């Protein structure tokens, strides 16, 4: 997110969407991949043509996927649709063509779910993305736009696409916002304004549908579901609100000796009575006790200086406080 933005807090949908893209991976299309025909038919988006047949092609995709549901074969697998690739016209004296699709660069990735019937549905946990290594700043030689442009677009996205058609429109709008151009296989802009076809000197645009199974990180999926719950329920989470705040947060001044004395007296929780806390650890305990909801205290030190012991004492202090105050529930 561009820190020059005027927003006060980073939108949770931005974090959620950015997490969904994980590293904005750049998939490699297998050399044996053949173009697909994708279209809207009988009220659903589906793969209409594939070699050698849709049924055989779909079976091969499921065989290549690692997706499982409770130990059984999944009804649908995570899948990437790729509407265009960018191929260098000449490299080391060798001219590339459409047949070298696997050697080019994927311009935009559209995550979806592929069913055994060939039906394509939107991935409820991910939005389209442009591979990170094509966005400046980057060390790669090919650049199609700015990462900040993709960040701004991701931050404004709705949580979920209702259909694959919606996902295709999102992909089209994303590509337009980042590059100022259009891709032939994606829907035109809703306002009808004509856009130039994407072009890059020294490269050939190959407009064909390709697809491949992919494996989203499991940890990211769990975190995405957590974000969905937070966004839906909107619970009070002061720490998360603090982390989302944009701008500088001045450090609180340390307490005077007189101010700290009662806090020291109340610091009675300890995990190991044989090894009392050091003065610096006790000072950290006092600072932790003085924190307001959502505030953050950074504690650092070399290995073996007692950071884990301090954390154990914090937990012990919470339990002691709960017991002394006759709290109805554990901390």
From TrEMBL:
This protein's name: Uncharacterized protein
């Amino acid at each position: 997110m561009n820190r020059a933005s005027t927003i006060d807090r980073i939108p949770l949908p931005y974090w959620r969407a950015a997490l969904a893209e994980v590293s904005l991976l750049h998939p490699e299309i297998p050399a044996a991949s053949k173009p697909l025909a994708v279209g809207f038919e009988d009220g659903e988006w589906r793969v209409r043509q594939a070699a050698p047949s849709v049924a055989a092609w779909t079976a091969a995709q499921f065989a290549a996927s690692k997706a499982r549901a409770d130990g059984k074969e999944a009804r649908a697998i995570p899948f990437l649709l790729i509407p265009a690739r960018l191929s260098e016209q000449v490299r080391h004296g060798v001219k590339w063509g459409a047949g070298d699709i696997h050697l080019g660069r994927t311009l935009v990735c559209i995550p979806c779910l592929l069913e055994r019937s060939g039906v394509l549905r939107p991935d409820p946990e991910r939005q389209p993305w442009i591979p990170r290594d094509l966005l400046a700043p980057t060390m790669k030689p090919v650049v199609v736009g700015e990462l900040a442009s993709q960040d701004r677009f991701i931050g404004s996205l709705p949580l979920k696409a209702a259909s694959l058609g919606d996902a295709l429109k999102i992909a089209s709008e994303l590509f337009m916002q980042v590059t100022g151009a259009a891709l032939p296989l994606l829907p035109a802009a809703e306002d009808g304004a004509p856009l130039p076809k994407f072009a890059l000197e020294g490269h050939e645009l190959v407009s064909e549908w390709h697809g491949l199974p992919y494996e989203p990180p499991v940890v990211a999926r769990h975190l995405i579901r957590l974000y969905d719950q937070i966004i839906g329920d909107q619970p009070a989470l002061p720490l998360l609100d603090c982390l989302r705040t944009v701008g500088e947060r001045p450090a609180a001044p340390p307490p005077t000796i007189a101010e700290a004395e009662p806090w020291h007296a109340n610091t009675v929780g300890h995990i190991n009575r044989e090894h009392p806390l050091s003065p610096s650890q006790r000072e950290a305990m006092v600072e932790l006790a003085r924190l307001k909801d959502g505030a953050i205290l950074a504690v650092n030190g070399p290995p073996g200086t007692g950071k884990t012991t301090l954390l154990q004492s914090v937990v012990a202090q919470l339990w002691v406080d709960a017991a002394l105050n006759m709290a109805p529930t554990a901390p």
